[in-house]
Amino acid sequence: MDGYDRSLSPAGVGDRPAALAGAASRLPDGLRGEQYAFVTLPLSEFLPGGGVTSDNVGVGRLIDAAEILQLNNPDLSPLDNCEDISSINVPGVAILSRRSEPLAMSLTAIELAAVRADSSTRQLVLDVGLDDSYLLARLDEGQRDEAAAFDKAKSQLNGLHFVVVQRPDDDEVAPAGFWLLRDVADLPV
Which partner from 88, 102, 110, 165 sits 20 to 30 angstroms from 59, CA to CA? Predict the structure, then answer.
């Protein structure tokens, strides 16, 4: 930018936050799950009339998926070439733990912002608050393709993704926590 002098700006202003730059700290014990999985849910579940509502997700946060994807403005929507919204899946990460309720409360307290999967470094990272990130898990060789698919799907949906926390044996029970998130690092420049 013409006339911009980085040395005159306050520290950090204009820089990418550490959470988005890739520096991940050790995950606090209270945030550890026993298992992690890449999962998807149909986009229709997050739209009006869908099954995911603030009444059935436990603690967490839901954002307006239709607004994020600009469904009311087809010229700006990343889905402009897609005729059937019911065929679109939103990527997510399931954190399974026998301590699902305390884990979900801890994630709420730290202001969960996004999840990143880096297939090149084989890391699954939680971004929290404004500039912190935690290494959630190391990805094995078999999970690299899943991580790449997660990031690709998230990017195609303007950063839209979710995190769900539940007990490993509670497939049919409402989750302890659910966050529908938008990763700002995936926004077009």
Answer: 88
